[in-house]
Write a structure and sequence with these properties.
Elements lengths: L1 E2 L2 E2 H8 L3 H9 L7 H11 L3 H6 L4 H7 L12 E6 L1 H5 L1 H4 L8 E4 L8 E4 L14 E5 L9 E5 L5 E11 L5 E6 L8 E2 L6 E10 L5
Parallel strand pairs: 3-5
Antiparallel strand pairs: 1-2, 3-4, 5-6, 6-11, 7-8, 7-11, 8-9, 9-10
Helix pairs in contact: 1-2
Length: about 210
């Protein structure tokens, strides 16, 4: 991929990011870019890290245009209700009559059954920090490696990485919910009753001051 006088092959060693990773970042196919990668790109092109982290400008725009003439990303007008973990656990039951008091705006083409959730806890560190927001679409079936919200045995939502593990003797899909933080346990669907609620479509991180 070519842009701004560089291609991802020539730029990768300059920013100390593996070329395949840099290519995915520029193409926008990486759902949750690492903070360290964003820091390196921002420093190299002399742009504000805040703009990259917040999504105010896209990595693709920075790559194409450098530090000037940056195309700002579309904020969007679609309203996504911001709910809590208990509400997420019973979203299908309450969505019809749910009256949200907080919303996120997005430009994503997602279903009307999507919702937003604020990350809590440390089980998904370092990629997802407490206070980050994620947008979940209940109409999207997860692929291996996707991040999902699921209902656990306590009837409350949990946010983890989806890892399929095959089919059991009853013909049922077996999968794991995997934390990114090794200090937390992996949950298996053949050991604990868990149900996928939806798949993450967007991740937003807000820098604290």
């Amino acid at each position: 991929m070519q842009g701004g006088g560089y291609n991802t092959n020539s730029l990768a060693p300059l920013v100390d990011i593996p070329q395949p990773t840099l290519h995915r970042l520029v193409k926008g196919t990486t759902q949750s870019p690492k903070q360290s990668h964003l820091d390196k790109i921002a420093k190299f092109f002399d742009v504000s890290i805040d703009m990259l982290v917040s999504g105010e400008v896209s990595i693709n725009s920075v790559f194409k245009n450098g530090s000037s003439n940056i195309n700002r990303t579309e904020i969007g007008t679609k309203k996504i209700p911001l709910i809590n973990y208990v509400q997420a656990g019973m979203w299908k039951e309450i969505i019809k009559d749910f009256d949200a008091t907080e919303y996120l705006l997005t430009a994503l083409d997602i279903s009307d059954k999507a919702f937003a959730l604020t990350i809590k806890g440390e089980s998904m560190l370092p990629d997802f920090k407490e206070g980050d927001c994620i947008v979940i679409d209940t109409e999207v079936h997860p692929l291996p490696g996707d991040f999902v919200v699921a209902m656990n045995g306590s009837n409350e939502a949990t946010f983890k990485k989806y890892r399929p593990r095959g089919i059991n003797e009853k013909g049922q899909d077996v999968f794991e919910l995997v934390p990114l933080n090794d200090d937390y346990p992996t949950i298996r669907s053949d050991i604990e009753p868990i149900k996928i609620i939806g798949t993450m479509m967007e991740h937003r991180r807000y820098r604290k001051r």
